[in-house]
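Notebook entry, structure prediction.
Reason for the run: the old model in the group folder had no record of what sequence produced it. Starting over properly, with the input documented here first.
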Amino acid sequence: MLIPDIIIASAVIVGAHIAANELAYTHSNGLHGIGDYLPQWWAKPLITCPTCMASVWGVTLSVVFGLGFTDAIMFILALAFTNTLFNRWVS
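New structure, fully documented this time:
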């Protein structure tokens, strides 16, 4: 069943996004975000955009979970949706 995996993965991804931003602001005394430390083409899908993070981390986790192609596509789309909801909820 994919629903618990989606919720747990989304909570971890959005938590990593928030933690990275907080660490960047704390480390730079509020002057810079995490996007200032990484190139934009790396920062957006890896850590700065929770919806975009579903593409990279969703593929990685679907390989770890051993999902088939159709399950992986559904997992990634559901992860993007759940990341968006969680991000709006905590922001």
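Summary: The chain has one domain: 3-90.
The old model has been moved to the deprecated folder.
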